[in-house]
Specification:
single chain; alpha/beta; Aspartate Aminotransferase, domain 1; Aspartate Aminotransferase, domain 2; four-stranded antiparallel sheet; 14 strands; 40% helix; globular
């Protein structure tokens, strides 16, 4: 089996523990266990009261009924029985793609974005064509290009909504057009929705609520600030869910009793987490915008209320060389844009703690002055 290295993961695996000022991550400032336990207003008593009754066996293989119900409540038209627990959104994407894609299938993938959404179909033997995100369109794709790419035998369209690393969100009107195009040939649409927009929330629509052949992947890692739990999920129709069940048995069995209980607790108190995280997103984005306004070598398309962003860098060296020097000399971690096939820039994880963000940007400014 031949599969490409995931560029961003390879970079972080090597360098993230070397950073003092990490402004590369795409999670909204991860919660501590102490902060999580404060969510119920009783120092976590409700969490531990439940957990203390549980045997530390395999637990519910597909996710507990409480977990399935909590996830289903995030959508308008999802049957809890069609919610399946996965090992983060990464595992959810793998399960969904292994279930749908077969050798020779035609797959259209939004590009460039999160690499597994097009590399896994290629690994599985699909004919993958790119639906290009365009900078001059505010990092949005052109629906007319999708119409040109679609074929009678197209099996799947893959989108990342919101986009990693760009932080852009597909408008509802475009989602309806994607569904219409997919439905015209009976194609599935896989939407990685791990980044939930925290502004203009009423205008965001999940593909699960628009299309019977829509498949959603998500987790509590990014928007809910608990990547440590490694709990994600797939949402689909019954036919697809029944097929995913088989692949789950080969890849993960279960998420574990503790992780399931933690995910249920987090989702049950999501309103408090989302309020906290919305404040972080809006505050930190304003900090970055003020910084960019003063930096002649940096520009961006502001992210749409999500925790990941891409900054364009006007520098005379390649972005990987720049980011490595920035890390080694100033202790600041960014992900080179070339790791997302977006050269001459970097992923900025601007939803770090305010202190880390401000210090990281200050040191990034010092590094940029080398080219003045």
């Amino acid at each position: 089996m031949d599969i490409a290295t995931i560029g961003v993961e390879e970079w972080l695996n090597v360098w993230e523990k070397s950073a003092k000022w990490d402004i590369a991550q795409s999670t909204i400032d991860s919660l501590t266990m102490g902060e999580i336990l404060q969510l119920d207003g009783a120092d976590g008593a409700s969490f531990y009261d439940q957990l203390n009754k549980e045997k530390m066996n395999y637990g519910w293989i597909e996710g507990s009924p409480d977990f399935k119900q909590q996830v289903a409540s995030l959508y308008h038209h999802v049957d809890p029985q069609n919610v399946l627990q996965a090992n983060g959104a990464t595992g959810a994407n793998l399960l969904a793609l292994m279930t749908i894609v077969e050798p020779g299938d035609h797959v259209i993938a939004e590009y460039p974005t999160y690499q597994p959404l097009y590399e896994i179909p290629r690994m599985l033997g699909a004919d993958v064509e790119y639906w290009h995100i365009q900078e001059d369109r505010g990092w949005a794709p052109d629906i007319e290009e999708l119409k040109r790419l679609i074929r009678p035998d197209t099996k799947l369209i893959c989108i990342n909504n919101a986009s990693n690393p760009l932080g852009t969100v597909l408008p509802t009107e475009m989602l309806h057009e994607i569904v219409e195009i997919a439905d015209s040939v009976g194609a599935y649409v896989l939407s990685d929705e791990v980044y939930l927009p925290l502004e203009d929330t009423d205008s965001f629509v999940s593909i699960a609520d628009l299309y019977d052949r829509g498949i959603v992947t998500n987790s509590i890692s990014k928007t809910y600030s608990v990547p440590a739990a490694r709990i994600g999920w797939t949402v689909s129709n019954k036919e697809v869910a029944d097929r995913i069940r088989t692949y789950r048995d080969y890849t993960m069995i279960c998420g574990g009793v503790f992780n399931d209980a933690l995910a249920v607790y987090v989702l049950r108190h999501r309103d408090k987490i989302l309020a906290r995280n919305r404040a972080i997103v809006l505050r930190n984005r304003a900090i970055v915008q003020e910084w960019i306004d003063q930096e002649s070598r940096v520009s961006w398309v502001p992210p749409k209320g999500v925790s990941t962003s891409y900054i364009r860098l006007d520098i005379p060296i390649d972005d990987e060389q720049f980011c490595l020097h920035l890390l080694k000399e100033r202790g600041v971690l960014l992900v080179p844009g070339s790791r997302f096939e977006l050269p001459c820039g970097a992923r900025l994880g601007y939803c770090a703690s305010e202190h880390v963000l401000r210090e990281g940007l200050s040191r990034l400014s010092e590094e940029l002055k080398r080219f003045d």
